């Protein structure tokens, strides 16, 4: 029979598992992180892990959702939707998202390894899957649909628009391949201008 934990022990172990999971998932990734590695700092058996989380994926999801709201606030509410100008909104979104990727290891991992989020989603029951609805990626897709219907964004598959924006976000991860990495900020400024101009329509182009 699995050991019984007091409320104090459960709170302490849960926090250790969250901290350990964050460190391991952001460095090793979901697949390469083992249960042995997750439970070792907490001093519990692998079988006891399931008294706290249903699976590695459940722990990963919880960590992602704990940050999702604040990330959405910064990149969507304070960035994308902070202005009525679609082109400027996209510029602000890209800048805020680049800042997020530079400072938020877990979100950087999700952006560069989308297959891990897919693996998490596949293991979820419908009730938990619904919690994924309110996240930056969903909000961005909704925004693109709205602006395409109003004629402010070019009429193309929304997934392509998302892909173009994601391409900009991947540039800093390959800065060492640029001719002069010191010019990264200047390159990003010009790239953001080119991309946002290419995706949006000005009045009279509808």
TrEMBL record:
Residues 34-53 bind DNA. InterPro entries: Homeodomain-like_sf, HTH-type_TetR-like_transc_reg, HTH_TetR, Tet_transcr_reg_TetR-rel_C_sf. The keyword DNA-binding applies. It comes from Saccharomonospora xinjiangensis XJ-54. PROSITE patterns: HTH_TETR_2. Keywords: DNA-binding, Transcription, Transcription regulation. It holds the Pfam family TetR_N. The keyword Transcription applies. Residues 11-71 form the HTH tetR-type domain. GO terms for molecular function: DNA-binding transcription factor activity; transcription cis-regulatory region binding. This is Transcriptional regulator.
């Amino acid at each position: 029979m699995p050991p019984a934990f007091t409320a104090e022990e459960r709170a302490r172990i849960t926090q250790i598992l969250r901290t350990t999971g964050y460190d391991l998932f952001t460095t090793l990734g979901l697949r390469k992180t083992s249960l042995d590695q997750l439970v070792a700092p907490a001093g519990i058996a692998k079988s006891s892990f399931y008294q706290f989380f249903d699976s590695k994926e459940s722990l990963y999801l919880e960590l992602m959702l704990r940050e999702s709201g604040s990330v959405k606030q910064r990149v969507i509410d304070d960035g994308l939707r902070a202005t009525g100008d679609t082109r400027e909104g996209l510029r602000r979104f890209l800048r805020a998202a680049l800042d997020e990727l530079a400072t938020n290891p877990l979100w950087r991992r999700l952006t560069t390894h989308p297959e891990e989020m897919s693996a998490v989603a596949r293991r979820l029951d419908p009730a938990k899957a619904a919690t994924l609805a309110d996240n930056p990626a969903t909000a961005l897709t909704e925004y693109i649909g709205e602006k395409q219907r109003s004629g402010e964004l070019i009429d193309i598959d929304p997934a392509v628009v998302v892909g173009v924006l994601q391409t900009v976000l991947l540039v800093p991860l390959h800065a060492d391949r640029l001719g002069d990495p010191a010019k990264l900020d200047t390159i990003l400024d010009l790239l953001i201008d080119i991309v946002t101009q290419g995706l949006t329509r000005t009045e009279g182009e509808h």
